[in-house]
Write a structure and sequence with these properties.
The complex is a heterodimer of chains A (112) and B (112). Chain A has 112 residues and is mostly beta strands. Chain A is 0% helix and 51% strand. Chain B is 0% helix and 51% strand. The radius of gyration of chain B is 13 Å and the shape is globular. The mean pLDDT of chain B is 94. The chains are: A mainly beta (112), B mainly beta (112). Chains A and B meet through strand 4, strand 5 and strand 9 of A and strand 5, strand 6, strand 10 and strand 11 of B.
Chain lengths: 112, 112
C-alpha cells in the first residue's frame, strides 16, 4: 500500500529537549516536505527537499532542521523546542512538478 | 509572495444543499491549483486539481475551474451529503513545484 508514515503520532515534551519526528514514504517520490497546521492559519511549509541531499527552506523554517540522506526518509529535527512549536505536523511526498502531494497522518506535538 | 485566500468558515448546510467555497490566489508564473480535504483526525487527501488556466478539476461530485482572469479556483458541489463534513483547503503549488501555499481552510458541517 502506497503511504507516508510518521512517528510518533503524539508527543508531549519539555522546552529545550531535542526531538526528531520521522517521516518515510514508499512511493519512490523525489519530493518531500514538512508542514505545520495551526488553527486559522492553514498549513505552512517548514522545509522541503527536491531529492537526496537537496533541501530548502519553506515559509516558517526557524527552529527546525531537516536532512535527506535517503530518498524514502525525511526527518524533522527540533534541537531546542519551544512552546510556540506546539502544533500539528504533516509530512508529504510527491513526484517533482505540478503534482498532488501525499500526506502522512500527522504528529501532534505539545511543548510545555 | 504567493498567497491563497479562502472563505472563512464554518459553513453549515443541510443535506442536498448547493455548496460553494471561494478561493482566490496571487502568484507569479503558472501555478497548479488544488483542493484538499481533511476528515477528523486524518491527514489531507487530494480532492481535485487543475494545472493550467481554464482546466476544470472534478471528483466525487465536486468541481473547480482554474480562472486566471479572476485568479480564482472556487469549489462547488450541487448536492452535499453528511459524509462531506470536513475541512477543505485550497492550495497552489508554484511553477517549479518547489513550494506549496495553503489557504486557512474552511470547515463544512452538513446536517441531515
Amino acid at each position: 500500500e502506497a503511504q507516508v508514515t510518521q512517528n510518533p503520532r503524539y508527543l508531549i515534551t519539555v522546552t529545550g529537549k531535542k526531538l526528531t519526528v520521522t517521516c518515510s514514504q514508499n512511493m519512490n517520490h523525489e519530493y518531500m516536505s514538512w508542514y505545520r497546521q495551526d488553527p486559522g492559519l492553514g498549513l505552512r511549509q517548514i522545509y522541503y527537499s527536491m531529492n537526496v541531499e537537496v533541501t530548502d527552506k519553506g515559509d516558517v523554517p526557524e527552529g527546525y532542521k531537516v536532512s535527506r540522506k535517503e530518498k524514502r526518509n525525511f526527518p524533522l529535527i527540533l534541537e531546542s523546542p519551544s512552546p510556540n512549536q506546539t502544533s500539528l505536523y504533516f509530512c508529504a511526498s510527491s513526484d517533482r512538478g505540478p503534482y498532488e502531494q501525499y500526506f502522512g497522518p500527522g504528529t501532534r506535538l505539545t511543548v510545555t | 509572495g504567493d498567497s491563497v485566500t479562502q472563505m472563512e468558515g464554518p459553513v453549515t448546510l443541510s443535506e442536498e444543499a448547493f455548496l460553494t467555497i471561494n478561493c482566490t490566489y496571487t502568484a507569479t508564473g503558472y501555478p497548479s491549483l488544488f483542493w484538499y480535504v481533511q476528515y477528523p483526525g486524518e491527514g489531507l487527501q487530494l480532492l481535485l486539481k487543475a494545472t493550467k488556466a481554464d482546466d476544470k478539476g472534478s471528483n466525487k461530485g465536486f468541481e473547480a475551474t482554474y480562472r486566471k482572469e479572476t485568479t480564482s479556483f472556487h469549489l462547488e458541489k450541487g448536492s452535499v451529503q453528511v459524509s462531506d463534513s470536513a475541512v477543505y483547503f485550497c492550495a497552489l503549488r508554484d511553477t517549479g513545484g518547489f513550494k506549496t501555499i495553503f489557504g486557512a481552510g474552511t470547515r463544512l458541517f452538513v446536517k441531515a
